């Protein structure tokens, strides 16, 4: 284990102020980026995760809202395990703000039955659902399994796809979420990308039925590595065109909840260790690596230990989703860091 790998456990001595501390942090960021790129067979193109000319700045605003910020949190996930990968740490941070009554619903589109090579799909289905319930119990999440085919969301017959969209719209109507978290519209995984499109279609039905317009958040892409977008804005964003790291619109400081979320993730043992070969899976530690990297991006000089972070972007679809980001209200003050241009 390298010196920089040991930093999160050992902490940074507070007397080490810039430039020495700044150099150590910058070197550790380069190390983490190198790990993400090499382990995914990608070319190492950058040495900093935040594009030049930008920084993440703490957003402690608590402006008055014209809408009620209370209500359930809902996530549309393609597989069991996507919740702890991308959102559990942030939800636990939301739940720590006791000003609101918090409830969390995970709508899981597949049972992950294709997730263990060498096992019969039905055996895998049963084990992965059991793992998901064990992990969800740690964070207090309510699971809703829809049991569509793992790996087949993008190839559903039109009638099946319509049925899935209407089922999602029904779930939206039943839950009436204040915040909806979805996979990004990126091709990091075919099921993830398709679940985004399915969720947007369901939101359209939900809006037509007069349902509540939720704050729509897309979580970080897998391992933070930039992917080709399924949708193109009218004017391409130069950050996503030239940078090989995904650039979330905001980061959440999850330092206080990251370990509990990791504990929930560890309940998904078939995704941690190959049960057939008995060997750790190749990417098992990269969720923590990305959390460390996002933590460095929001790191301030007065920290006592290296933070952990999770990335999100707020998406506004007029008439369908909420223009106001209710995550600011639901998190404890000072938890959000917004991407901003450096003046």
CATH level 1 name: Alpha Beta
| Topology as a string of helices (H) and strands (E) | HHEEHHEHEHEHEHEHHEEHEHE
What is the quaternary state of this protein? single chain
Give the termini separation.
39 Å
User: What fraction strand?
Assistant: 15-25%
Helix content: 25-40%
Please give the radius of gyration in angstroms. 20 Å
Low-confidence stretches: 1-15, 229-234, 236-243
Number of domains: 1
Compute the number of helices: 12
From the coordinates shown, what is the CATH architecture?
Answer: 3-Layer(aba) Sandwich
Kindly report the spatial arrangement of strands forming the biggest sheet. Answer: 1-11-7-10-6-5-2-3-4
The main β sheet shows up as:
9 strands, mixed
Form type: globular
**What is the number of E strands?**
11
Rounded mean pLDDT score: 87
Describe what you observe in this structure.
This protein has 343 residues and is an alpha/beta fold. It has one domain (3-60, 68-341): 3-Layer(aba) Sandwich (Rossmann fold). Helix content is 38%, strand content 16%. The chain contains 12 helices and 11 strands. A 9-stranded mixed β-sheet has the order 1-11-7-10-6-5-2-3-4, sandwiched between helices. A two-stranded antiparallel ribbon has the order 8-9. Helix 4 packs across helix 9, helix 5 (121-139) packs antiparallel against helix 9 (258-266) and helix 6 packs across helix 7. The longest helix is centred in the N-terminal third of the chain and has 20 residues, at 20-39. The protein is globular. It starts with a helix and ends with a strand. The relative contact order is 0.19. The model is unreliable at 1-15, 229-234 and 236-243 (pLDDT under 50).
């Amino acid at each position: 284990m390298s010196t920089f790998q040991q930093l999160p456990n050992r902490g940074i001595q507070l007397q080490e102020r810039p430039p020495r501390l700044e150099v150590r942090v910058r070197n550790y960021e380069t190390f983490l980026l190198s790990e993400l790129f090499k382990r995914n067979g990608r070319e190492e193109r950058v040495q900093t995760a935040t594009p030049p000319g930008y920084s993440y700045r703490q957003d402690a605003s608590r402006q008055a809202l014209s809408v009620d910020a209370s209500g359930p949190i809902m996530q549309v996930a393609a597989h069991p395990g996507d919740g702890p990968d991308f959102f559990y740490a942030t939800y636990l941070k939301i739940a720590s703000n006791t000003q609101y009554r918090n409830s969390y619903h995970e709508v899981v589109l597949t049972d992950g039955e294709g997730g263990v090579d060498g096992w019969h799909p039905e055996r895998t289905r049963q084990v992965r659902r059991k793992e998901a319930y064990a992990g969800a119990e740690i964070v207090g999440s309510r699971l809703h399994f829809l049991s569509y085919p793992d790996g087949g969301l993008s190839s559903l017959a039109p009638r099946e796809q319509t049925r899935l969209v209407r089922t999602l719209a029904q779930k939206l109507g039943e839950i009436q979420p204040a915040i909806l978290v979805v996979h990004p519209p990126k091709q990091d995984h075919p099921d993830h990308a398709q679940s985004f499109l399915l969720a947007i279609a369901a939101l359209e039905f939900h809006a037509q039925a007069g349902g509540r317009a939720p704050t729509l958040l897309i979580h970080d892409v897998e391992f933070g590595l930039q992917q080709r977008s399924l949708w193109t804005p009218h004017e391409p964003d130069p950050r996503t065109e030239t940078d090989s790291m995904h650039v979330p619109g905001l980061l959440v400081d999850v330092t206080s909840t990251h370990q509990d979320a990791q504990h929930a993730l560890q309940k998904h043992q078939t995704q941690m260790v190959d049960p057939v070969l008995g060997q750790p899976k190749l990417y098992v530690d990269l969720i923590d690596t990305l959390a460390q990297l996002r933590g460095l991006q929001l790191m301030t000089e007065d920290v006592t230990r290296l933070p952990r972070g999770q990335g999100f972007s707020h998406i506004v679809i007029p008439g369908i989703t909420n223009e106001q980001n209710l995550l600011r209200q639901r998190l404890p003050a000072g938890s959000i860091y917004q991407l901003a241009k450096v003046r």
